[in-house]
Specification:
Layout: H1 2-140, H2 144-192, E1 203-207, H3 212-218, H4 223-232, E2 235-237, E3 244-248, H5 252-268, H6 273-302, H7 309-317, E4 322-323, E5 326-327, H8 328-346, H9 350-359, H10 374-384, H11 389-397, H12 407-421, H13 430-445, E6 450-456, E7 461-466, H14 473-490, E8 498-502
Parallel strand pairs: 7-8
Antiparallel strand pairs: 1-3, 2-3, 4-5, 6-7
Length: about 500
């Protein structure tokens, strides 16, 4: 029973499955037919659309081709017209060139004709010139070469005379301008440089608190004074001068050491040979320190750098050295400033001029110890410490022992003369000063034709009045040279003396 039921169910299932399959197949076939019909429609529509676009593209291409053809035709017409215009211009230029060629040919014919005429005239003139030269040679009795030489000689003499006059005028003008410029430079340098000078002598006076101190300084049987003089190398003079003793010696550094040590001994009060030696040693160290400081101060004040330490010490020693009462260190500083100022005015190396000016008297620092003139000693010292060759030459030439070969040497020589010769730079006793001025006037008045003479400018200038009826202008020139020469031979003086002769004629009448 159950088996039959199962079979029925299975059969029913197969029938249902087969029916469903057939139904789905029919439905699928109907959908496929519908899709195929729709696809055919889409293809037909697409073909129609493609045909339309194809026709539109063909039309657009034809229009573009037509447009380009028209554009090319227009450009062709424009080029053709431009070529025609250029062709017309070329034709016009060709015609113009033809006309110019014809004109040039005509001018060339005219020039050829004129050239022939000029050649003919030239030949004719040459013949006339030759005939005239022959006639002139016959008349003068000279050949043309001889006449040329005479003419050239005359012209040469005339030119030489004119050249001599011109050279003389230029020399006079240059001399006047040079002297004026030199005066301006020197005046400017002196105005801008003012240095103090301290006058010193070879003795120093030491004040004492009382006269009893003299006996203590002398010591028992003079042992203290002998020990002091032996240690310092300075003479100690004890005389009747109240409350004072005198130190005398040619070496200013020794004298300064003696002064300081004696002042220390007087203050200390313990005076005996051992104490004297101790104080002298302390004073020597103190003076050495002062020498170094003075040298460094001089270098700083002048702005000169790079000097050898030994040269700086030697400069410091000049603080205690005098020349005609003029402090040599202050003189050297002044010469450095003057040389630097004048070098600046002339556009020369200022530092080199200052260096040479500062070191020009360096030989005086040791001329008490080394034999020979201070110039030669200074040259040796500068060479020893490898100074600049121009500086060495300036030292050698500053007193005229050598001819100055450089501008710096000339400036140092001039600055040295200015510093030493200006009024007040060097001390002179009143009696010697008056005698020198009187002698100066006597020398000038001794010449024939001199009426009066006056020494002025502290003896730096003498003005001489001459009698005009006895001394003419040329005689005045001769007389001034003779007076200057006699002054050089008979007088000793620092610097130079200006000799001026004044000659004048006065005509006086009275209205009555």
């Amino acid at each position: 029973m159950q088996t039959n039921l199962a079979i029925v169910i299975i059969v029913t299932a197969f029938i249902a499955f087969g029916s469903g399959y057939l139904v789905r197949k029919l439905i699928a076939e109907s959908k496929i037919a519908s899709a195929e019909a729709q696809a055919r429609k889409i293809i037909e529509d697409a073909q129609k659309e493609a045909e339309g676009k194809k026709r539109e593209a063909i039309l657009e291409a034809k229009e573009e081709i037509l447009k380009q053809r028209n554009e090319m035709e227009r450009e062709h017409k424009e080029r053709r017209s431009e070529l025609q215009r250029l062709e017309r211009r070329l034709v016009q230029k060709e015609e113009t060139l033809d006309r110019k060629v014809e004109s040039i040919e005509k001018k060339e014919e005219v020039l050829n004709r004129k050239e022939a005429e000029v050649d003919a005239l030239k030949n004719e003139l040459t013949a006339i010139y030759n005939r005239q030269v022959m006639e002139l040679e016959r008349i003068s009795g000279l050949t043309s070469e001889e006449a040329r030489q005479i003419l050239l000689a005359d012209i040469e003499k005339e030119i030489q005379h004119e050249a001599a006059i011109m050279i003389k005028e230029i020399e006079n003008k240059a001399k006047e301008e040079g002297e004026k410029r030199a005066r301006e430079i020197i005046t400017s340098a002196i105005q801008r440089c003012a240095a103090d000078h301290v006058a010193e002598t070879t003795v120093a006076v030491i004040p004492l608190p009382n006269d009893e101190m003299k006996g203590r300084i002398i010591g028992r049987e003079g042992r203290n004074i002998r020990a002091f003089e032996t240690a310092t190398g300075i003479d100690l003079i004890i005389d009747d001068t109240p409350e004072a003793v005198i130190l005398s010696g040619f070496d200013p550094i020794r004298r300064e050491i003696a002064r300081i040590s004696l002042e220390k001994l007087i203050v200390d009060g313990r005076i005996h040979p051992a104490r004297i030696e101790e104080m002298v040693e302390k004073a020597r160290k103190e003076v050495d320190q002062q020498i170094r400081e003075a040298g460094e101060q001089a270098v700083f004040e002048t702005g000169v750098h790079g000097l050898h330490p030994e040269l700086i010490n030697l400069l410091g020693r000049l603080k205690y050295r005098t020349s005609y009462g003029q402090n040599v260190l202050k003189h050297s500083i002044e010469v450095a400033h003057l040389a630097g100022l004048m070098a600046a005015e002339l556009g020369v190396d200022v530092q080199l001029a200052k260096r040479a000016g500062l070191l020009h008297d360096i030989g005086k620092a040791v001329d008490h110890e080394v034999e020979g003139p201070h110039v030669a000693i200074g040259v040796e010292l500068a060479q020893k410490y490898r100074e600049n060759k121009e500086v060495v030459h300036a030292i050698a030439a500053h007193h005229g022992d050598e001819e100055p070969r450089t501008i710096v040497a000339g400036l140092v020589q001039a600055a040295d003369a200015i510093s030493a010769a200006r009024p007040g730079a060097r001390r002179e006793t009143l009696e010697a000063y008056i005698k020198r001025l009187q002698k100066l006037e006597e020398i000038a008045s001794a010449f024939e034709g001199v009426e009066k003479s006056y020494a002025i400018q502290a003896g730096r200038e003498i003005r001489i009045m001459v009698k005009p009826e006895k001394v003419d202008d040329l005689g005045a020139i001769k007389l001034v040279r003779e007076i200057a020469k006699k002054i050089e031979n008979e007088l000793d003086y620092p610097g130079q003396i200006k000799v001026m002769i004044i000659r004048e004629t006065r005509v006086v009448d009275y209205a009555k």
